[in-house]
Amino acid sequence: MAVEMSTAEFQPQADELAQVLELLKQSQISDTAVQREVQKKLEELKKIPTFSYYLLYVLTRMTDEQQVTRSLGGLILKNNIHAAWSTYTDEAKRYVKAECVHALGESNQMVRTTVDVVIASILSQESIHAWPDLVVKLLDQLHSDQDQVVVGAFSVVQKICEDSAFYQVEDREYALRTLMPALVGLLLHQNVKVRLMCLQSVNFFLGIRSPFLDHFIDDRFLARLFNCMNDSEQSIHDCLCQALSLLCNLYFNKLTNYMPFFCGPLHSAQ
């Protein structure tokens, strides 16, 4: 059954929302008999198109609800997406994706992590190129002056970078073209966690042979990368060594003028 309805102004019915919330709360009870009934009810509800919308509403809109309940709703939604995303109408897909983008601003860490899981599930089902709003929102968060917002964005960005090696060429180049310039700009961020996540993300990209990277890896990029040698954190040095190894494997011709710099990071890694 296709998931379809008018999504422009989705407003849950109070009695149906109460039933979903009760089910989510019962699912947290360890009693075997209760769990058996919960699973039976879940199988029934999966056949109802509006169920995914109620789960999404609990996850993204019910900010006064307990975080465990909201997150559980998101995890069930993730499973539904994984199993039946192809049955969602285009309108339903747009709605789910729009709500996930909205929820990237979630302040509760548990809920935000669950939103990231739902986003990853969607990205496993369709092209990142078909979700430009997600990339726009992530770029906006990467440029935030709040460190926790930047770190939160990287939880999704790193997954995109890691998976990009398995994307179709068009999607891979899109991810590189939109994300790589922002990543380079964060290599010298004041927060060490941001610097590390940034360099790790760059390394995922450097393991890819790409027409975009053939053009992008220039003296400006390499100078920025080698500035990481001055970082006081050993984890950054270790990550830089990995970056240099990846560059040697795929883009050695770009490094001719930088060979003397290799001794520093390689020596520090020993």
Describe this structure in words.
This protein is mostly helical. Helix 3 packs parallel to helix 5, helix 6 packs parallel to helix 8 and helix 9 packs antiparallel against helix 10 (192-206). The protein has 14 helices and no strands. The chain is 68% helix and 0% strand. The chain starts with 13 loop residues before the first helix and ends with a helix. It has helices spanning 14-26, 32-45, 51-61, 67-84, 90-103, 109-123, 132-142, 147-163, 169-185, 192-206, 211-216, 219-226, 234-250, 263-269. It has a domain at 1-102. Residues 38-106 form the Importin N-terminal domain. One of its GO terms (cellular component) is cytoplasm. InterPro entries: ARM-like, ARM-type_fold, Importin-beta_N, Importin_beta. This is Importin-beta protein. It is found in: Cytoplasm.
